[in-house]
Amino acid sequence: MLIIFSVYIYTVIRFQRYITRSTHHHLTSLITYNSTMGSLTIPKLLVVDFTNDNLTPGTTTWSSTCNDIRVALENHGCFIALYNGVSTKLQESVFQAADELFDLPTETKIKNIVSKPYHGYVGQMPIVPLHEGLGIDYATDHEGAQSFTNLIETSMLFSRAVKELENMVIKMIFESYGVGKYSDSHMDSTTYLLRYLKYRAPEMNETTMAFPSHTDKSFLTILHQNQVSGLEIRARNEEWISVEYPPSSFVVMAGDACKAWSNDRVLSPNHKVTMDKHGKETRYTIALFSFLSKKVEVPDELVDYEHPLKFKAFDHVDLLNYYVTENGRKSQNILQDFCGV
């Protein structure tokens, strides 16, 4: 017990130094202590410091980080990004916007209709009573941000700021797989969906499951939450990991389209949201999802003797449409059933 406690003290000191930026390391593993269970948790999620001035293309720091991100996505399907491209004021504004949006009458919220599945309003569902969601498609464009909410500037500024992080991650993923020459055309063909997600605290004897286990149908998903945790990720080894966000951090997660593009190298992780049964606060998550307006297809460079082609090329929107069919809802391996070779 003394050894465990000593490790915990050492870990907390290191983590505090990390958060205050007094360390020069650009990568770390996030280690937390579960005071309820009295156990040391050694998570498995990579933390990448995108505020590091040395993280520029062509440097050894860049190259090693590209490799670390690739390994993280293959093993866990996600990593944590420390990113200062979203100011504290903008973070406060976007969560205030979430409060205002979800306080609107239900008859107003249900007008958030988007033709693509799960892009508009989701809520008032007995199977997930704690959850509501609102969406803005083409969120980085002025016309998209105008489509539903009068909180245009906040939504668009946030989306554009997080898009910059997404673009950097795309460059790093593509470079790590030796296909960096395709990253620009990929980004030019990307559209973005911004979703405001609410998970209210459960009432007495109410379920704590705020959203059931699922994978995203996006290429990448970037999540930013308020101070209330609840996100759990299932790693490739089937272990569930509770995600703790450091301040000003984002979770970068691979979706099914990224898994398909990588020829089954990248993990599109199952994830869910579980609320604390004793909690009293609402959990807000602001999520930016990326989708391709061109076909999702495996680069030739990612097909070889050890990695035969797993998936046929497909239109991204067709994956979304398949997901809401009876066969799509029943599928235990949606990519294999939808576009498997």
TrEMBL record:
GO molecular function, one term: 2-oxoglutarate-dependent dioxygenase activity
Domain Fe2OG dioxygenase: 189-292
UniProt keyword Plastid, yes or no: no
Keywords: Iron, Metal-binding, Oxidoreductase
InterPro entries reported in the protein's UniProt record: DIOX_N, IPNS-like_FE2OG_OXY, IPNS-like_sf, Iron_ascorbate_oxido_reductase, Oxoglu/Fe-dep_dioxygenase_dom
Top-level taxon of origin: Eukaryota
SUPFAM superfamilies assigned: Clavaminate synthase-like
UniProt key word Iron: yes
Membership in a protein family: Belongs to the iron/ascorbate-dependent oxidoreductase family.
Function per UniProt: Probable 2-oxoglutarate-dependent dioxygenase that may be involved in glucosinolates biosynthesis. May play a role in the production of aliphatic glucosinolates.
Name of the featured protein: Fe2OG dioxygenase domain-containing protein
Source organism: Lactuca sativa (Garden lettuce)
